[in-house]
Specification:
The chain is of the alpha/beta class. It is built from five helices and seven strands, in the order βαβαββββαβαα. The strands form two sheets. The chain has a five-stranded mixed beta sheet with strand order 2-6-3-4-5, covered by helices on one side. It is elongated and about 75 Å long.
Length: 207
Amino acid sequence: MVTSTTGATSRFAGSDTRATSYTLTQAIRKIGDYGLILCGKQASDSDMAQVGPGIAKRMSLELLTYVSRINEFDVANRRIVVERRAEGGVQVLETRLPALITMLEGSNEMRFGSTPNMFRAARAAVRHWDRTSAGIEDIKFVGLKGSPTIVSRVFGPTPRAEKAVQIAFDPANPDAAGAALLEKILVESPCAAKELAKRQPGYHEEE
């Protein structure tokens, strides 16, 4: 069964991560009989990475984020072992099912169907659910009404006129390079020089 809630009704339009996680939670509960829920790491527009964790919280599911690989998926013993990318390297984690995991980009190997299967997929019926089909009784939890997030302005960073300053140094004498860099910072930033002076023993601020 292929089911879609996004775009099926204007009631869902303008949903932030809170309203989206609520809508998807209700739809998943309506479908039922799940052991593993797969979500992307984050959306390509807001990059907030909150929908997956939001669904797991609402459904009291085990949550594993930033998963790069599924090593074991044991349905009989209701367990899953994954590799999770972390700042210090890769973590190997195990948890019980049902669970929700958010997958990193590039973690899936694309498979291309045969021509007959492509035509069969093109003819497949997609069921579009409105709020009633998804089990949403109160519209105050979806769309703009259910979205407390307010985006006041979207803008790019202001271009800077300053150019990077190159400081040449001898690799055999890194201490001289550090001294040259510190001197440059203190000359360019009088406030930094003053703050550094305050940290020196015996400093007395002039009247």
